[in-house]
Design goal:
mainly beta, binds copper (II) ion, 283 residues, 2 domains, Immunoglobulin-like, eight-stranded mixed β-sheet, six-stranded mixed β-sheet, disordered N terminus, globular
Length: 283
């Protein structure tokens, strides 16, 4: 949801201290979560492990808050603090130089739960939610990913493959009701993301568009059941598991056409270029 300047981002400035304590934990074989990572969002922030091991990670993301939340993993460059990153974003730069987007679970409505499999490399990460701004009220957070020498967890076999292409979605296979595993590939050539909304009765794609354009205020016209946030390295493949009740769904790429919010055209998104798709999940 990087098209909107409203955001909340968690950060700490004491990354060095943090990293050292992680290394100490590693030496003592304590407090290190391997590759299965629970992250809980609530309206006050995230609950999550401080240190995890690098490799293919299985992320279980639950939204215990009252609002929609997401969690993007942003790998910070050497010496970059969460505050540095945040300051650049606040100045209008959506992609601070040196920081690398590593995807993460996209928008999830209150009470929702999704699972994701993605590779995390060693480094310090900021956990960021680009949905509407709670910045002032939230506790800052980062997470350290430690070298492990292991591959991590093997992702499950997918039910369908979703390809994100400039500027459309292509589904290889048919999504069915119940839990579905979606393998997501970015064909590009530019970065993309996808959010899945189950439309509420009587609502249409146009209602989704209006809600997005009007700052996502008020009740959304659909339930957000998860998504895939962007990867700087578009060759990275990510797996999403979420639950589909029968109904009408919209896939949406809300990325902005230009990366700087000070530039004209920042409010034009990939969805405006046609990157959305309606789906019917049969009973
Ligand atoms: Cu896109």
């Amino acid at each position: 949801m990087r098209s909107i300047r409203n955001f909340f981002v968690f950060f700490i400035s004491g990354l060095t201290i943090f990293y050292t304590s992680c290394l100490d934990s590693q030496k003592n074989n304590q407090n290190i979560v391997d590759n299965k990572v629970h992250i809980i969002a609530n309206d006050a922030g995230y609950e999550y492990p401080d240190c995890i091991l690098a490799g293919m990670s299985h992320i279980i993301f639950e939204n215990h808050g009252s609002e929609i939340h997401e969690v993007m993993f942003v790998k910070l460059s050497e010496g970059m603090t969460g505050k540095n990153y945040l300051d650049e974003v606040a100045s209008g730069i959506s992609f601070p130089e040196g920081a690398i987007d590593y995807s993460g679970p996209g928008l999830v409505s209150s009470g929702g739960k999704v699972e994701m499999w993605l590779t995390l490399d060693p480094g310090n990460y900021l956990l960021a939610c680009w949905f509407k701004g709670h910045l002032e009220t939230l506790k800052p957070y980062t997470m350290t990913v430690l070298k492990s020498g292991k591959k991590g967890i093997t992702p499950p076999k997918e039910d369908v493959t979703l390809k994100m292409i400039d500027f459309r979605f292509e589904l290889d296979g048919i999504l069915k009701k119940g839990d579905q595993v979606i393998k997501v590939e970015t064909v590009g050539p530019t970065m993309h993301e996808v959010d899945f909304f189950r439309l509420h009765d009587g609502k249409t794609i146009e209602d989704i568009r209006q809600w997005q354009k009007q700052g996502k205020n008020g009740q959304p016209p659909g339930t957000a059941i998860g998504g895939i946030l962007d990867n700087h390295d578009i060759s990275r493949i990510v797996w999403l598991k979420t639950n589909f009740e029968p109904g009408r769904y919209v896939l949406w790429c809300g990325m902005a056409m230009v990366p700087d919010s000070n530039e004209p055209g920042f409010d034009v998104t990939h969805a405006d270029a046609g990157m959305f798709k309606e789906l019917l999940i049969q009973d």
